[in-house]
Design goal:
By secondary structure, the chain is mainly beta. It has a domain of 94 residues: Lipocalin, CATH 2.40.128. It is 8% helix and 35% strand. The strands form three sheets. The chain has a four-stranded antiparallel sheet with strand order 3-4-5-6. It has a three-stranded antiparallel sheet with strand order 7-8-9, with no helix packed on it.
Length: 144
């Protein structure tokens, strides 16, 4: 197995910095204005697979914003396996910065593939979510 010193010369590594990931969880940050950001933990179901697309919408029509997470990664190295447990994770919001996982049999979500983007498109009387998926057509989800 090659080490970093096998790949780069001492001159190339001379000014190289070391970066370290300190948090690997999927979280959300609440913007508190002048007070900065407040970190909020998300339920364990948000941690099952990589997340690449996030949006908020009132999916359950209760007047409170919910969060939809999409992602997956099928292009990992063989020894790690695929990360494909995310078929659309809906987290229902209570309006007080708390979110609860909505099981897929209730949410109806079944988004397969490596989602890399998720956008909310507002029409005159509709809201649609569009998921961009690697090597697949765009998936549309009508929420209203």
């Amino acid at each position: 197995m090659a080490t970093i010193n096998d790949l780069f010369t001492p001159g190339q590594l001379k000014n190289a910095g070391v970066l370290k990931a300190a948090m690997m969880q999927t979280i959300y940050l609440e913007n508190k204005g002048d007070k900065g950001f407040q970190l909020h933990q998300l339920p364990v179901e948000a941690q099952y697979s990589p997340v690449y697309g996030i949006t908020s919408t009132d999916a359950n029509h209760d007047g409170k914003e919910d969060i939809l997470l999409c992602g997956n990664n099928a292009w990992t190295r063989i020894k790690f396996g695929r990360y494909e447990a995310n078929h659309g994770v809906l987290l229902a919001g209570d309006g007080k910065n708390n979110f609860t996982y909505t099981p897929q049999y209730k949410s109806g979500l079944n988004i397969k593939g490596d989602v890399r983007s998720l956008v909310k498109v507002k029409g005159k009387n509709t809201i649609q979510l569009l998921a961009g998926i690697n090597d697949s057509p765009v998936v549309g989800i009508k929420t209203r």
